Protein 1
Amino acid sequence: MDYNFDSIIDRSIYPTEKWSKEKLNKYFGNKDLLSLWVADMDFKTSNLLIDDLVNRARHGIFGYEYKTDDHHNAIINWYKKRHNWSFKQHDLYYAPNILSAISILIDLLTDVGDHIIIQTPVYYPFSKNIKYHKRIPINNSLILVDGKYEIDFDDLEEKAKNSKAKLIILSNPHNPVGRVWKEYELKRIGEICLKYDIKIISDEIHGDIVYKNYKYTPIASISEDIANITMTCLSPGKTFNISGLSTAAVIISNKEIAKKFMRFENKYHINTNNSFSLVAFHSSYAKCGQWFDKFLVYLEDNLLFLKNYIKKNLPIITLIEPEGTYLIWIDLRKLKMKDKQLQKFIIDEVKVAFVFGHWFGNEGSGFIRVNIACPRKILEEALIRLKSAIDQHNVNL
Ligand SMILES: Cc1ncc(COP(=O)(O)O)c(C=O)c1O
């Protein structure tokens, strides 16, 4: 049965981070907002996956389980077929989610007080995670050139050379600015890291979600030398909208690091064999490619709808053309509001929960991140609210 991406489903009946009134109230001080913030989709995942989960539940026995070769092969085949990247089963490790994998790797590869480079504005749990471990985030800020974010390689080299950096955490594709890093950009990052003995954690959770005319390149696929210093974090969470099922993988081809990773997981008995996670992980990669392709078509249409709406109705705002992710980075700096004022305006006047740019670092000031993985009617309603609040604001000026 085909899924209708236009269906509006009430998610607030479950304790969802995105839609529950409790969480909206906690983060925005208003429980009655339309929600386009947390990075998950408002779409049901594939029926094939739902059926497999229901059948697993009906079996009724949820004792200890393990990962079969079929399980490992599902992800190996997905990456080979979709992204022409081959990795071996012995380089494949698992974690409950991407953030726990990143956290373990920070712990293993750095010491208290070490520096870790991030490319701000970036997914804010990176810097939070770094600080939880008493390491110091070093910002290699992205630069906005003619409407497109670029890596400041001179600054990166300077920081690689002169800081106590042992690690860089990449977001590829980049959340929130939507860049899908090109092979030559990743190669240059890899060369700098090799030169200054810096390891790379590449968070590639958004890797499948790439718009027409762009191509995702896993950094570890570029060369053996780069693969040897890279830990690539992968997950079906964003691709199939199953983040609540806790599934992630880490590709580690450096044997020493892999051994440390396994030892850490064994020491703390980190369980990656939840019965439902196992089903979701395998079934999504093995069976749900068609659902995902349909999602991508709907997403492209949502992006087009958003761009047309802005062009026609909201000339004061600028959309940063995304290459990947369903998170759209929007420039509201022409409204000339300070962060607090913009936040208040969005919450009180627009009445939509977006992620505020400054949450991603100072470089995000004046921007919002809009999650367009939702039925078009919800996106349209959010845009109508934005237009009406901006029109009213302009009248009052
Ligand atoms: C770049 C990035 N990494 C990691 C995550 C979270 O992944 P997980 O839920 O597997 O920890 C997100 C979620 O928004 C993300 O955007």
Protein 2
Amino acid sequence: MKQFSCGAVVPGCTATFEADDEHGILTQVAAHAREDHGMDAVPDEVVAQVRANISEAA
Ligand SMILES: [Zn+2]
């Protein structure tokens, strides 16, 4: 299980995500970025930041 806290990339955002793998996290983050942060697409540099901050969940 992987987990990611949006606040690691967007200060102040409290959204957190869990998925079986990195792809699952990125899919959820893309939807969240669009709906809650008004980002139509997630730039490569943001994807890189997200990947760097994904951690193992118990
Ligand atoms: Zn967020």
Protein 3
Amino acid sequence: MKDIHYEKAVAKFLIFLEEKGLRKTTERMMMLEEIYSRHDHFDAEDLYKTMVDKKQYVSRATIYNNLEVLLECGLIRKNQFGNNVTKYEKAANFRQHDHLICLDCQQVKEFCDPRLQQIQKMIGEMMKFEITQHDLLLYGHCEKADCENKKVLNN
Ligand SMILES: [Zn+2]
Ligand SMILES: [Zn+2]
């Protein structure tokens, strides 16, 4: 689905590639399109599998390299969910949000609370610090009935 976010992302990416002297390759543009059509948190392997399923052949190395390029361009956001879990998501022009992570099924939920922005602003003023971003991860146990690995309590 092509929307305004995607159109803006393409424009930003093309300018970035030009400035960095990088080529506008089909693979790069396909990756950007794929990323901007999804609404989840994904890693390189997820992206690779989806693209292979859609017969868009891009090598794993190309995916890894271009995730770095997209990150540098600010078009994706990199999240460290737990020790060895790195997930990406599209970033440009999206509302600020934070994450809840279930320690049992690793499912990630998003939430947005404008009060966090106010706190960030207050802390910045108090500490004489120009805060440009924040990362907040809340860990715990989701309440889904089918949450995998959830420890079953004996009644
Ligand atoms: Zn869970
Ligand atoms: Zn997110």
